[in-house]
Write a structure and sequence with these properties.
The complex is a heterodimer. Chain A is an alpha/beta fold. Chain A is built from six helices and five strands. The chains are: A alpha/beta, B alpha+beta.
């Protein structure tokens, strides 16, 4: 997991860049809304397919965290996670999210290389919990020092 | 062959019937004038000799004309061993009498010079005297020193259908000879052949009443056995490992619609369905190696071209197979139909489960979107909306939430359907309740609910499913409380091989009429209840309990004090 240690110069995105891979505009909306309310300056790019996300990264996009729905059309989210894990090593934090209630999803996500496995909540307010956990990956120091709660 | 089996069976029957035979022996003793002047024999041996003579007489063989059936065996013996003399000799009280006789003019000799008397003392052995002049028992025997100048003797004992030794079939030479390997086995077979002919002769005479009057129950037994063969509802056959039937019974012919000649003249493998031939040959090879067939099925072609499924048991004895077959065509067809129905059922169950997953994911998605957009309106614009609009939004959100719960419960119920039996898994109910307390913590806090857990046992069962059960019961209890803080109490007590687990709430109670159907799908106790478990929760509970061999029921319920649900689970693993 990436740690912003003292003296390190963060490349590009002062306020953190989150790449969300999500085909549901409603979930993308809920996630963006929760992230913005927690961290108004963070940037969120939403790719609706794994292929698009990979293309962006190959073109030089450098997200601080990738949050990926594992039930995507086309190349599955799990496949994208393991490809990213393969090319980026342990540097890039990866988060798997899903609305499915299948128990094996957690295991499969861990196997594909996800650092976190989160279930999408039903209620809008509960997305705050998701946002909080994602932010802890992007802004570990602030989170630990209590700047962001 | 068949006879050997038959003979063995009869000797067993005899020993079983021994006690009953005693009184008959007593009777016969009086009427048969059997003298006790024979020297130095034990009482048991004397009784055995009496029994033997009684059977010999009852068979009505002594002093009867020659019969081709026995002459044929004697001829076969003489030819086989190139012996000048061959006899079927019956050992009477004080003489031996030849039922068949090749190479001798006389038909009887005194018992004191009889070789056969010696031979019958060891009923299971073939007696061989290679050179009588060198044998102390016989070198002074009149039949050795004078005509017919016996030097070589080989004789195999013959048993009657009642089990007594009657005499021998023997070959005699005037020159000393040595036996070759296999000779005694052939001698044995010839003796079996004579035994067979004795039984056939009995059957041909068909005089059961006469036999009974003589008191020979055992001879009747032999006839009963033969009738059994002919009348059996099972298909009986004797076959050679060379691949032909040697004999088949009536039922055998009837089932296949074929006549005896056809069955006996065609290699049996030709009747077997082409697809079953390899397996059949393998089974015959197994029999050849001495192993019995316990259960083997193949298809036999009937005269009309159709096939019948036969289920076999078979016992090998040398090169001969004794086999019993049963026509299981009908049963196989029913089994096949059953398998097809089962397969269809499984496929439909699978389709149902796949459908349940689809429902879970694909239907949940838009529903979640509806709810979260409604949430967004409420969060962002509640102040700007008229009061009744807020009310409508609230009701819509609750209804949507209830629908997601229903979908989740439906999923859970479907998933339970394909769950394995709990096996020998063990559940720590205390641990389960701890888990539930933490996973339901948000709900408990929201409702200000109290969860009181007594001493919990460790019992047989799958922890995941037991947790599902208890969680549903706790949630159900909480939801039954509409006013005030829910108070849910869990207690467990052992009672004669069962654990009674009682879950009590302080809710509204369940009307008497509903106490059974609340465990059915989509039955709501209180339809107006919002965010409820929508009636699947208790159906899930019942499914879990039944999978564990237990029961669930409303123990008591009252609008004033609430409801107690009782789950009974076996305290020992259900086998």
């Amino acid at each position: 997991m990436r740690r912003a240690t003292q003296g390190e110069v963060r490349e590009g995105h002062e306020d953190g860049l989150v790449l969300l891979v999500e085909d549901s505009p409603d979930d993308a909306y809920a996630f963006r809304r929760a992230m913005k309310s927690l961290h108004p300056n963070c940037q969120i790019r939403v790719a609706s397919t794994g292929e698009q996300a990979m293309a962006w990264i190959e073109d030089g996009l450098q997200p601080d965290v990738v949050v990926c729905d594992i039930n995507l059309p086309g190349a599955s989210g799990l496949e994208m996670l393991s490809r990213l894990r393969g090319s980026k090593g342990r540097v890039l934090p990866l988060v798997a999210i899903t609305s499915s209630r299948m128990r094996r999803d957690r295991h499969l996500s861990r196997e594909a290389g996800a650092d976190l496995f989160l279930r999408k909540p039903d209620r809008l307010a509960d997305w705050a919990g998701i946002a909080r956990q994602v932010c802890q990956l992007v802004f570990p120091v602030e989170a630990e020092s209590g700047v962001v709660t | 062959m068949a006879l050997r089996d038959c003979g063995m069976a009869s000797s067993r029957a005899k020993s079983v019937a021994g006690a009953g035979a005693e009184s008959q022996v007593g009777q016969l003793e009086r009427q048969a004038r059997r003298s006790s002047d024979r020297p130095a024999k034990t009482a048991g041996a004397k009784a055995g000799e009496r029994e033997r003579l009684r059977e010999l007489q009852a068979l009505d063989l002594l002093d009867t004309p020659t019969e081709e059936r026995f002459d044929a065996v004697a001829r076969l013996a003489a030819r086989t061993f190139r012996a000048p003399i061959a006899l079927v000799s019956l050992v009477d009280e004080d003489r031996q009498w030849f039922k068949a006789c090749i190479g001798l003019e006389v038909r009887a000799t005194g018992r004191e010079v009889s070789f056969c008397s010696h031979a019958i003392e060891h009923p299971e052995e073939v007696m061989v005297v290679e050179d009588a002049l060198k044998d102390p028992r016989f070198r002074d025997n009149g039949l050795v020193t004078g005509p017919p100048h016996i030097r070589f003797y080989m004789g195999a004992p013959i048993r009657g259908p009642g089990g007594s030794v009657l005499g021998t079939v023997c070959v005699i030479d005037r020159n000393p000879r040595s036996v070759e390997p296999g000779d005694t086995a052939i001698m044995h077979s010839l003796a079996r052949l004579v035994e067979f002919e004795i039984v056939l002769r009995l059957l041909a005479h068909e005089q059961p009443l006469d036999l009974v009057s003589v008191g020979d129950v055992q001879a009747l037994d032999a006839m009963s056995r033969m009738r059994f063969w002919e009348m059996s509802r099972d298909m009986l056959c004797i076959a050679s490992t060379e691949g032909y039937f040697l004999d088949v019974n009536a039922r055998f012919m009837q089932v296949l619609g074929r006549d005896r000649n056809q069955l006996l003249e065609t290699p049996f493998i030709e009747f077997v369905h082409p697809d079953d031939r390899d397996a059949t040959l393998k089974e015959v090879a197994k029999l050849q190696s001495g192993l019995p067939t316990i259960s083997f099925s193949n298809r036999y072609r009937c005269q009309d071209g159709s096939y019948k499924w036969l289920e076999w048991t078979a016992t090998p004895l040398g090169d001969t197979l004794y086999a019993v077959a049963r026509d299981v065509t009908q049963r196989r067809k029913m089994d096949e139909d059953m398998r097809q129905i089962q397969g269809a059922l499984e496929r439909s169950n699978q389709a149902l489960e796949e459908y349940a997953y689809l429902v879970s994911h694909d239907m949940r998605e838009p529903l979640r979107a509806v709810i979260s957009r409604l949430d967004a309106i409420m969060e962002d614009h509640a102040d700007a909306l008229p009061e009744n609009a807020v009310h409508h939004l609230d009701r819509a959100t609750r209804a949507g939430t209830r629908l997601t719960h229903m979908i989740d419960n439906l999923m859970e119920y479907a998933r339970l359907g394909k769950a394995e039996p709990p096996g020998d898994a063990v559940t720590d109910l205390g641990q389960v309740m701890d888990n539930i307390r933490s996973s339901l913590n948000p709900l408990l806090e929201e409702r200000g609910a109290k969860l009181i857990v007594g001493d919990m046992p460790v019992l047989p069962g799958d922890p995941a499913r037991i947790e599902m059960l208890m969680q549903n019961l706790v949630k159900n209890g909480i939801q039954s409380v509409s006013d005030g803080a829910p108070r849910i109490k869990i207690e467990a007590a052992e009672e004669a091989g069962w654990w009674n687990i009682d879950v009590s709430d302080n809710g509204r109670g369940i009307p008497e009429v509903n106490r059974e159907n609340i465990f059915r799908m989509f039955q709501q106790i209180h339809p107006e209840q919002l965010g409820g478990s929508a009636g699947i929760g208790l159906a899930v509970c019942r499914r879990v309990v039944e999978q564990h061999g237990g029961t669930i029921a409303v123990l008591r319920s009252d609008p004033a004090t609430g409801t107690t649900m009782r789950v009974r689970l076996p305290s020992e693993v259900v086998v």
